[in-house]
Amino acid sequence: VFPIGTISGEGEYAFIFEMKGYYAHRALKRLLSAGIIVQINENPFTVSGQYFDRGSAVIPLGVQKNKRALIKQIISQITSQDGIDIHKSATGYAQKGIDLGSRSMEVLKLPKVAILVGDGVSSYEAGEVWHLHDQRFEMGVTLLPIQNLSSTDLSKYNKIVMPNGNYSKLN
Fold first, then answer.
1. How far is CA 37 from each of CA 60, 69, 95, 97, 105, rounded to the nearest angstrom?
2. Long-range contacts, stretch 136-143, CB < 8 angstroms, 24+ apart
3. Does residue 155 register a pLDDT over 90?
4. What is the spatial distance between Cα 25 and Cα 132, in angstroms, rounded to a whole number?
5. pLDDT tens digit string along 15-24?
6. CA distance 94 to 35
7. Confidence band, pLDDT 50/70/90 cuts, at residue 3
């Protein structure tokens, strides 16, 4: 039986979840694909009595007033389909650690991923990385043949995955 996530806490300041669990990255992708602002904390904090480790996802609601219904719909999907526990916070003030509006919060961008494949690259590992990102996390990825690398516009990607292989021919 697939686990169902829960929603705890009270308030309308932010939704927060830890980036733990197999489908946490798929949950993050759901939010980013919908144009939702998501921040990641660089330092741990405690808010509304709940501790959050470094790398937790914070979805601030105040700056996204026109997207609240969409955010709540996606949060429902995240708990039911990704099995992620969500915490609602009524405040951005931390009892310990950084406040939610801190500069230690990094705003995330939707990953645009290319995976290098071809001569010298382990096809098994490239396939495993592709399956994880494309099939499990539902992140469309590009399989980029290493022999085409020099003639490819790499500005289309903000992440390039290099599976195990021999990259000695790259300069």
1. 7, 14, 23, 22, 12
2. 136/22, 136/23, 136/26, 137/23, 137/25, 137/26, 137/29, 138/26, 138/29, 139/25, 139/26, 139/29, 139/111, 139/113, 141/113, 141/114, 141/115, 142/113, 142/114, 142/115, 143/114, 143/115, 143/117
3. yes
4. 10
5. 999 998 888 9
6. 26
7. confident
DSSP 115-145: EEESTTB-HHHHHHHHIIIIIIS---EEEEE
pTM of the predicted model as reported, rounded to 2 decimal places:
0.83
Q: Report pLDDT for 137.
A: 82
Q: Which residue has the tokens 């099995």?
A: 83
pLDDT at residue 135 above 90?
no
Residues counted in the chain: 171
Distance CA 62, CA 39 (A): 13
DSSP assignment of 18-76 equals -S-STTHHHHHHHHHHTT---EEESS-EEETTEEE-TT-EEEESGGGGGGHHHHHHHHH
Q: Which residue has the tokens 């992440």?
A: 159
| Percent of the chain topping pLDDT 90 | 71
Which tokens hold the place of 45? Answer: 């904090």
